[in-house]
Amino acid sequence: xxxxxxxxxxxxxxxxxxxxxxxxxxxxxxxxxxxxxxxxxxxxxxxxxxxxxxxxxxxxxxxxxxxxxxxxxxxxxxxxxxxxxxxxxxxxxxxxxxxxxxxxxxxxxxxxxxxxxxxxxxxxxxxxxxxxxxxxxxxxxxxxxxxxxxxxxxxxxxxxxxxxxxxxxxxxxxxxxxxxxxxxxxxxxxxxxxxxxxxxxxxxxxxxxxxxxxxxxxxxxxxxxxxxxxxxxxxxxxxxxxxxxxxxxxxxxxxxxxxxxxx
Length: 263
Ligand code: IPD
Ligand code: CA
Ligand code: CA
What we know:
The protein is α+β, with helices and mostly antiparallel strands and 263 residues long. 36% of the residues lie in helices and 27% in strands.
């Protein structure tokens, strides 16, 4: 395993311990509202600190972009770690076991290493650019389904910024009508990993943040999938608008989504 990936795995497992210990006493956890439908807990912060401590110990000069503490280090740094300590905080608060730790490492702006750790299933998803994607050390591939009407598509509802809810619902209506079903599970990093190992055939969501998608996207790409924005372009990390699937399914999803969205 690449040494930088090894550090990411160590950090993710450390955070997983913090989170799972806290999950035994959910009632005592303080929850704060960042904005409407956007929550943070002391556990998010403690898990994030545990991750940063591991990374700082190994690579004190690397920059860090983390959801709860923001950006640290020099702008334009060669290496940047992109961290979501709990992706799926709303699920976590509700004791709904669908959340993960997401850690990516970008080198000169390109994501090179990725870890998504699901502490409830003890599932560790990893990828190194050019080397492949793995679930618990076994190679994973995107699904082989070709026809959209046989495909299950996952998505995320726009609950924080609802300015485009009507557009979103029109897209969802078309996707439901033309696929074998839609799923909303509540943790974008795991949605992407589910695409990578073929448990769902595609995923789309608007307005995500880099820490939601940086790691999961490399895992999809290294599993043979494609990641684009709603117009098939490569702006997804900046725009947060993302579609991920195998090449054939992606084309059919874009045909549904793009006409609803201004270019
Ligand atoms: C959220 C999850 C969710 C997605 C939201 C994200 P958080 O991340 O990934 O699936 O729909 O848009 O904000 O806030 O739980 O880290
Ligand atoms: Ca997130
Ligand atoms: Ca989070």
